[in-house]
Amino acid sequence: MSSDSVGVPDVSARLERVTNELREIQDLLISGNGVDPRILTDFRDAMNRIRNTAWAIQQYAESKTTEKDPQAVLSVLAGERVRLAYQLAKLVQADLANTEIQFQKGQLLRLHGAAEELARRLGEVVGD
């Protein structure tokens, strides 16, 4: 084992294990045994994020070996984060409207602070 990899999880082995588990989950989904639609939506969203991130990381790694500009890939990743932030904001809005969901005040205060700072920075960037 090289000194660069000491203490670093074996990403390839972990990806292989997760891939096998996802295949098992696929079989369960195909069987159609009572999946909560909200959980399935969350799962699909997570899978899309992982797929997009994996694609971008692959493109970034390839850009290093082919001497292509990696900035384009970094911009794609940043754009993906913006898209995800929008989706998450909409989901949080729906959760806040749902009286069955109980939030911890501390979580909401941290989110509120982060959202205010984000709004301030967005205003600077878009010219508000």
Account of the 3D structure:
With 128 residues, this protein is mainly α. The protein has a domain at 37-97. It is 78% helix and 0% strand. It contains 4 helices and no strands. The chain has helices at 11-31, 37-66, 71-97, 105-126. It is flat and about 40 Å long. The model has no long low-confidence stretch (mean pLDDT 85).
Number of strands: 0
Largest sheet descriptor: none
Alpha-carbon distance between the termini? 52 Å
Number of helices: 4
How is the quaternary structure best described? Answer: single chain
* Element-level helix/strand string: HHHH
Quickly give the structural class.
mainly alpha
Tell me what portion of residues adopts beta-strand conformation: under 5%
Helix content: over 70%
Computed Rg: 19 Å
* Gross morphology: flat
The residue-averaged pLDDT reads 85
Low-confidence stretches: none
Question: In summary, what is this structure?
Answer:
The chain has four helices and no strands.
Index terms:
128 residues, mainly alpha
